[in-house]
Amino acid sequence: MALTLNGEQQLLRDSARNFVSTHAPVSHLRSLRDRNDDRGYSPVLWEQMVELGWAGIAIPESYGGAGLGLLELGLVMEECGRTLAPTPLLSTVLLAGNAVLEAGSEAQKSALLPAVCEGNKVMALAFEERSRFAPYQVACKAEARGTGFRLSGRKTFVLDGHIADTLVVTARTQGEVGDRDGISLFLVDPKQAGVKIERTTTLDSRNAAQCSFEAVDVPGDALLGELHQGADVLDRVLDRATVCLSAEMLGLVSQTYDVTLDYLKTRVQFDARIGSFQALQHRAVDMFCELELCKSLVLEALTAADEGRDDATMLASAVKARLTDASRWITRQAVQLHGGIGMTDEHDIGLYLKRGAATEQTLGDSAYHLDRFASLRGF
Amino acid sequence: MALTLNGEQQLLRDSARNFVSTHAPVSHLRSLRDRNDDRGYSPVLWEQMVELGWAGIAIPESYGGAGLGLLELGLVMEECGRTLAPTPLLSTVLLAGNAVLEAGSEAQKSALLPAVCEGNKVMALAFEERSRFAPYQVACKAEARGTGFRLSGRKTFVLDGHIADTLVVTARTQGEVGDRDGISLFLVDPKQAGVKIERTTTLDSRNAAQCSFEAVDVPGDALLGELHQGADVLDRVLDRATVCLSAEMLGLVSQTYDVTLDYLKTRVQFDARIGSFQALQHRAVDMFCELELCKSLVLEALTAADEGRDDATMLASAVKARLTDASRWITRQAVQLHGGIGMTDEHDIGLYLKRGAATEQTLGDSAYHLDRFASLRGF
Amino acid sequence: MGELESFRNEVRDWLKASVPESLYGRPLTMMAREEPEAADLQADRKRYLERMVERGYTAPTWPKQYGGGGLTPPQAKVLQEELGRLRVPPALMGMGLTMIGPTLLVHGNDEQKEKYLPKIVTGEHRWCQGFSEPNAGSDLASLRTSAKLDDSGERYVINGQKIWTSGAQYSNWIFMLVRTDETTKHQGITFILLPMDTPGIEVKPIRLISGNSPFCEVFFTDVVADVKDVVGGVNQGWTVAKTLLNFERSGMGGGGPQRRPGATTGGGLVALAKEAVGERDGRIADTRTRDRLASLQLDELAYSLTLKRSAQTRKAGGAPGPEISMFKLYQSELGQRRDELAMALRGTDGLAVDENEVGPARAWLSAKATTIYGGSSEIQRNIIAKRVLKLPIN
Amino acid sequence: MGELESFRNEVRDWLKASVPESLYGRPLTMMAREEPEAADLQADRKRYLERMVERGYTAPTWPKQYGGGGLTPPQAKVLQEELGRLRVPPALMGMGLTMIGPTLLVHGNDEQKEKYLPKIVTGEHRWCQGFSEPNAGSDLASLRTSAKLDDSGERYVINGQKIWTSGAQYSNWIFMLVRTDETTKHQGITFILLPMDTPGIEVKPIRLISGNSPFCEVFFTDVVADVKDVVGGVNQGWTVAKTLLNFERSGMGGGGPQRRPGATTGGGLVALAKEAVGERDGRIADTRTRDRLASLQLDELAYSLTLKRSAQTRKAGGAPGPEISMFKLYQSELGQRRDELAMALRGTDGLAVDENEVGPARAWLSAKATTIYGGSSEIQRNIIAKRVLKLPIN
Q: CB distance from D315 to chain B under 8 Å?
């Protein structure tokens, strides 16, 4: 239960930090945005990340990965958060990829995971149907039809859905909307007839798609994991993704804080550096303390997930609730403390505000996770 | 809908302020406390207040009162709040007295209200049975017995209950605990057999009693208002008392703020008056703004009650929720800003903290009233 | 019937006869993105403006001699209420009416009032504000844009840069603060007026995080201004500016909840909340959301009552005092809370942005400026601490 | 078996043989009201202390030569864990062990260490702290209590007043800060030790808002002290004090949630909440209360993880640095929040006070001091701003 990094982990983090600050600084996101890049990330850069092994960090060696833990992947995500570097790590590796890893047959895993590790496949998990995170609210139906299934329904906020080579789709095979039981997972080829995918641009200059499935027939071996038992897979996958997204948020919030602290130390008004004003000092101190708490929670949640501990789920909700509130508070404060310059598109701080706002809503907001935290603690 | 005082109202307020600051400054409460005064207020002083007409301010002239409004009574309460002057205004006039005024027969009103106006009678409203405000949670029973009723049950937090000459007791004559219907009000002589009253001292050096009624027989004319319809009376009485208690809280919080602002202007540390430190300045500003909002709400709620407006109930909950939160925040801040000296019994600020804490819980806390406010606004 | 009531009837009749019906129920278009309007609608707007100008109703309380309506404040309120009843937009808006006009009435000389006020009233002069500079934001008085008297003694030559000049690209006049004495801070500032088409002025819009560009940078290179256009005296500009800033804040805080394009209004939030988390017994199903909304509504209620109380207490006709800072502070922070709540309730749906519309996400972003411009919340707190609470200065 | 494990076995056996069983599961009595204990229990406590002292276990990590246990930090942790397993109270507590002892190990000379440390270890010296003065609270360095060297050059004569001296009425020694140079601020302070029975010392307990009197005023009139009892050199007292204050804060923030008499513990709050607002499906019925409790528990979790992380990161053996201010700050504010929540949940029941017991209301009142003493929350924020964040000074 160490809350410190070992030498190798420190090395990995330093190399990730070095890579993103050199090859994917904030100006990289900015240029993708300004040219309305359709993918939302740079394939060239992604290839380099893949070469550094990032896609397969937490995937077993037998499928071409490095077989390391979520902690290591989390460190990389944190560094990507620092420069807002867009990657398909969340969509392809943490959501859809992990679903395959958790639930897939040997054949499915062999077919998909090595391609993920090699960066040859973008995947997306289509599981949300509402604007507020509610993974069991699945109305999308899959009816048995011969040896296969026929899918009908709609999904929303499918991250990187518009460029996915393979979709993992949750559909109801039994029970009522809202039931935990009766959800199943399917592999769907987005190019298949009846699949309609519409890209939306989110305010953080990333993509989330609206998908609709109209009588889409898939073969029996498109079923991922056990019939009706998809929620078990979903829970594990979402918990792990939530923890890593929180790590990314930690990077984002840390950088926001660093930039703001620096501004307080340099901006002069009233013949003084504004960081000498006590009201601003105390606010900076409160942000500093909050970040220290966030760091501890992120490390603990990543470690608990790697160790398969009983409290891993509780910690996943704890960390997402915390980072969401920290992001809301610190990114808003950062804009305020930057004053007018922080309102300009030219300054980076607004991009942190926007990405912060998007991650706050992604995979459940703080109200959702605080409630789940309470529930897992027995109240 | 004026939110300013007219000349007479200003005069009344000034005279009340003058009276309490001369005759009932904080040292008065302190001396009552230090000698463990059983009544919790000074009968001599109360007599003088009665002479000033305070007991009957809002009682019609036909029963010996001045026939003025709740606004006038609220102004007096506010000034009493400023010096923490203990009076039986809340128990005798606003709770039990108003119940008689609202619901009593001519005979009941004539028997009781003139005595209240003359200061010859202390009354108490025994209506709470739980530690959290819930006026319909009445388990105490009154069964018809001959031409009268037999009361059995327990009441808690009966303000001034241990010295009351007459109790107004809520009892269930129909329905289940929690029902709004089926509550009736009764006049009970506390000296009657079966009535047991136990004084508790509250942390603000006032009194609230635990009362129990064991097969207490009361005659038919002890019924106050219509059978089963007591909740209507209770609602009106509690709303009006809540607004006036909020006015008292405004006085308390205003004085807390004034004393603290003064301390900030005089206490020297680090070779500067501490009120020159920006972090403390901004906190003082936020308290100032909050108090301005509180003042507006108190005036509006008192006026609405006097005008019998439709939004009077909504405003009663609005004002109590607001003043409770303001009291919690400002009295705690005041102690913190006073530093060590604020922790000593010798300094008055601790007495404001304690009275604040008591009023925060009295007649419903902010959670209760915020929820009721939302409900009355249609959500 | 009281005088005010007969005035109301008169106004009502006149408005009915004068306002083209096509404008009834039209939302404000100021601040929203410019979109081409049908030619007949444009003509109706023009006609409406002309009629309002004729009666002095674009500046209802200004003296008639300057083209105002000469109305008393209660009469002006009646006019506003009657316009509100028809839900027609104001015929004319802008800093001329809300900021420089009222300031000239206080500090301008007769010549200036006669020259400028009538052109504000008609909309001929559209004003912008040259106050902030890149290194003079919260600390406005540290401004550096210099004005040097030339040899004739009749002209200033201005050099420097202004920033956050709202609507500079649409304005033909600017009121600005310039430094006329380098050896002192507040006492070396002068308030001056000049036309935007003066040679040497360059305007550059600033793109904001919301994607809009309501503000500009304005560059001054050897720009010549007339000494007659100094308001309130040389080196007396700070006094004039303080008056003007209070009018500005009073516009930001005094008007009750302001409608901003894309922002969710109070009632809209309740509907949004019921939709987002569901209803139970007609109430928002989730206590947490209900509490957040209730606490916002309670703040809004307390705030609007305080505005009303302040208006009743303030002496008639006076320029607003430092307590106006409280309203600016409170209104901007309330608005941001409302937008944050609206964003939270929309969940992931609220994250979508569309290049062509002002959705809630853009409104949320735009509102972040409200606690910064016109004196940041921190500056407002400093002002209240010093001028209202009289707390000591370090 | 690792060395640590064999040490654990040894300790476990020794404790089993040495701690009287009557002390198992006994709560702390320090800070609680003094109530008379049965004579045999008192004898058992004495026996327990003697045995612990014999092995140096009252100060486990101090060098053996001064009566300490000479244990490594991991060994000391094992000892603590084993004591915790038996739920026996510490044999000895107080400022000698937690504050002046560790400080003497850093700044004391050999003579001082030999003279004082062994008497701390046995409990013979009970220390109190003479730092704050009525006009030197947050601004501790402005203290005025003077110490003037007499003609012999071997004695100081002390005059002045200290305040907030915790437990002065039960102590027989005091460590204090005195002014030895009036012409400078921080550089004119000296750290000195003296016995409480020195003539001229008068102790007066201070009654607090909670009704308790854990603190005293201490008056000094021509009190004579020995120059040999100066720690760290004349006019070097501020450096010594900073070391000591960090040990103090580390005691206030480093130990995880502290038990205070009458305070409601974490688990107790859940039960209290379920009782107060009811249960639904095994959960607290009301979302609002659930959220408040969850947010408190989340803070406590994050805080305790951060303590753990900090302990793992900090270099072994070092005195705590300024980051300890964060823990002092956080722990005191968390504790107050817990008490506020407990008060709120108890409703009107929580308002009752009884002269003879330490109920929740008194605990709530007592806790208000935690954000004030040992450097207020404001001072901790100043320290972090300056020493950790390196923000500029005005």
A: no
Pair of tokens at residue B206:
């006032």
| Residues C274, B288: C-beta atoms closer than 8 Å | no
The residues in C 134-193 lying below 8 A from A, measured between CB atoms, are 135-139, 142, 163-164
Active site residue D81: no
Q: Is C217 on the interface with A (CB under 8 A)?
A: no
A93 with A137, same domain: the answer is no
CB–CB contact C305 B2 (8 Å): no
- From the list C82, C133, C248, C300, the catalytic residue is C248
Average pLDDT over residues D35-61: 88
B289–chain C nearest CA distance, Å: 7
Residues of chain A with a CB closer than 8 angstroms to some CB in chain C: 128, 130-133, 156-157, 200-204, 208, 268-271, 274, 277, 279-280, 328, 332, 335-336, 339-340, 342-346, 350, 353-354, 357-358, 361-362, 365, 367
Choosing from A96, A120, A144, the residue where a domain stops is: A120
* The pLDDT value given to residue C257: 44
The CATH code of the domain that includes A137 is 2.40.110.10
Q: Computed over its alpha carbons, how large is the radius of gyration of chain B?
A: 21
Interface predicted TM-score (ipTM) of this complex, two decimals: 0.91
The fold of the D254-388 domain, in CATH, is: Butyryl-CoA Dehydrogenase, subunit A; domain 3 (1.20.140)
Residues B86 and B137 in one domain: no
CA distance A183 to chain C (A): 22
| Candidate CATH numbers 2.40.110.10, 3.30.420.10, 1.10.238.10, 3.40.50.720; the one for domain D127-235 | 2.40.110.10
Residues B269 and B328 in one domain: yes
Give the relative orientation of helices D287-313 and A312-338 as an angle to the nearest 10 degrees.
90
Q: How many helices (H) and strands (E) does chain A have?
A: 12, 10
How far is it, in rounded angstroms, from Cα B252 to Cα B329?
13
CB contacts under 8 A, B 274-313 vs A, are 277-282
Q: Is B117 helix (H, G, I), strand (E, B) or coil?
A: helix
**Using the beta-carbon criterion (under 8 Å), do C282 and B3 form an inter-chain contact?**
no
Q: Considering chain B, what is the average pLDDT of its residues? A: 97
Facing B3 at nearest CB: one of C273, C293, C308 = C308
Q: Which residue of C has its CA nearest to B325?
A: C295
Hey, are the CB atoms on A371 and D294 less than 8 Å from each other?
Answer: yes
- Domain that includes residue B64, residue range: 7-120
Nearest to A285 among D293, D302, D385 (CB): D385
| pLDDT recorded at residue C324 | 86
Instruction: Give the Å distances, CA to CA, from A208 to A81, A158, A241, A370, D193.
Output: 18, 5, 16, 25, 69
Tell me if chain B has a CB within 8 Å of the CB of C224: no
What would the pLDDT profile of C274-297 be if each residue is shown by its tens digit? 999 999 999 999 889 999 999 999
Q: What percent of chain A has pLDDT over 90?
A: 98
Closest C-chain CA to B257: C389
Whether residue A362 is found in the same domain as residue A264: yes
The residues of chain C scoring below 50 in pLDDT are 29-34, 255-258, 316
Q: CA–CA separation, B216 vs B205, rounded Å?
A: 30
Contacts of B282 (CB under 8 A, 6+ apart): A279, C378, C381, C385
Query: In terms of domains, do A73 and A26 share one?
Result: yes
In the prediction, which pLDDT does D31 show?
A: 39
d(CA A142, CA A165): 21
Query: pLDDT (tens digit, 9 = 90+) per residue, D125-157?
Result: 999 999 999 999 889 999 999 999 999 999 999
Confidence of residue D259 (pLDDT cuts 50, 70, 90): low
- Confidence grade of residue D30 (pLDDT, cut at 50, 70, 90): very low
Q: How much is the pTM?
A: 0.90
Please give the C-alpha separations between residue A275 and each of A263, A282, C374, in angstroms, as whole numbers. 8, 10, 21
Contact C123, C92 (CB under 8 A): yes
